[in-house]
Amino acid sequence: MNTKMLTVVNLALAGFLGFAVLTGTTPEASPGSTAGAVPQIIKPVDLDRSFHFAGEALPMDNFDVRERLDRELLVNTYWHSNTMLNIKSAYKFFPMMEQTLKEYGIPEDFKYLAVAESSLRNAVSPAGARGLWQLMSPTAREYGLEISDDVDERYHYEKATVAACKMLNSYYKNFGSWTTVAAAYNAGYGRIKSEMEAQRAESYYDLNLNAETSRYVFRLVAIKEILSRPSDFGFYLEEEDGYPPLDNFKTVEVSSSIPNLGDFALEQGTTYRMLKVFNPWLISSSLTVRPGKTYEIKIPK
User: Fold this and answer.
1) 251 exposed, middle or buried (CB, 10 Å; 0-12, 13-18, 19+)?
2) How far apart are CA 104 and CA 126, in angstroms?
C-alpha cells in the first residue's frame, strides 16, 4: 500500500473511532448498529409487589395477570409524549374529579378511568361517545345530561363527571366489585353480566373478554402507577409544568337565547375562543334557551 493511500485509510479510521467515542457506540458494543442511533435505556417494570385498583388487590400470583399488567405498564411507560401530556392534564382535571368522586362515594382511582377513556380531552370516539368520560348519548341522557343542537353536556366537565359517578354507583349496586364496575364501564353492564354468568366467572380476572376490555383494568392500574409517581417511571416535571385548572372565572346566568356567541363573548369582556375553552358544552355559535330554562356560563377573569 503506498503512503498516500495509507494516509487516507488512517484518516478514515480516526474519524470513525472519533465518532464512536462521541456516540458511545463501537462495533464490539453494538453489533449491527447504525451510525447515529439514539441511545436509550429500556428496562422492565418491577412486578414483584402488590398492585391495587379501588382498594381491590390484583391476583399477582396468577402468571396471566402478571403478563397482562406488564404489557400495559410497558406500553404506557414508553409511550412518552402521550403519557407526559396525560400527567400535565391531570393537574387541570384531577382536583375537580377527586372532589366529585368523593361526594358520590366512589374510590378516587376512578379518575384514571377518564385518562384511559379520553386522555383527559374532549374526545369523540368512532362509536359516537364524547367528552372526558366518553359517554354515549342514550347513557348521557339517562343520567341527566342535555344534548341538543346547541348544547352537549357530555363536554361539560363537572356535569359529565357527575353523570359518570351516578352510572358507576348504579353498577356497583349490582356487581359489588369496583374492578368489575370498571370493566362494565368499558364493555357495558349487560355484556359483563352475561359473560360472568355464561363463563361461571367470579371476578373480572377470570373472564375471557374481547381484547379492549381484557386490557382495560390493567391499563387503569398502569396509568395509576405512572401518574401517581411519574419520576419512578422516568417522567420528570415540576408542578408548574402541569396545565392549570380552569378555576379562574365568574358565572353568568343566561335565561334568554343568544343569537351570536361571538357578540356575547365580547360583551362579557372575553373572546369567542376563551368562551369555548371554558364552556366546551356550547357546541354551536348560538344558544337557544327554552322558556323557563337557565344556563350557567363561565366567563374567564
Assistant:
1) exposed
2) 30
Judge if 160 and 63 occupy the same domain: yes
Q: Which residues contact 203 (CB under 8 A, 6 or more apart)?
A: 177, 179, 180
Phi, psi for 287 (deg, rounded to 5): -140, 115
Q: Is 55 left (phi over 0), alpha (psi -120 to 50) or beta?
A: left
Condensed to tens digits (0 to 9), the pLDDT of residues 201-257 reads 999 999 999 999 999 999 999 999 999 999 999 999 999 999 999 999 999 999 999
Residues 197 and 257 in one domain: no
Burial 46-67 (b: 16+ CB within 10 A, else e): eeeeebebbebebeeeeeebbe
pLDDT in tens, 176-209: 999 999 999 999 999 999 999 999 999 999 999 9
In terms of domains, do 121 and 269 share one? no
In degrees rounded to 5, what are phi and psi of residue 30?
A: -135, 75
Looking at the structure, do residues 140 and 224 belong to the same domain, yes or no? Answer: yes
Residues 111 and 194 reside in one and the same domain:
yes
Residue in the structure block whose three cell numbers are 368562551: 275
Task: State the pLDDT confidence band at 62, using cuts at 50, 70 and 90.
Answer: very high
Give the HSE-up count for residue 84: Cα atoms under 13 Å, Cβ half-sphere. 10
Please give the tally of structural domains in the chain: 2
Q: What is the DSSP string of 204-224?
A: GGG----HHHHHHHHHHHHHH
pTM: 0.85
- Give the Cα separation of 100 and 133 in Å (integer): 13
Q: What are 236's three cell numbers?
A: 420528570
Higher pLDDT, 4 or 46: 46
Angle between helices 211-228 and 63-77 (to 10 degrees): 60
Task: Find the CATH number of the domain harbouring 168.
Answer: 1.10.530.10
Range of the domain at 262: 249-300
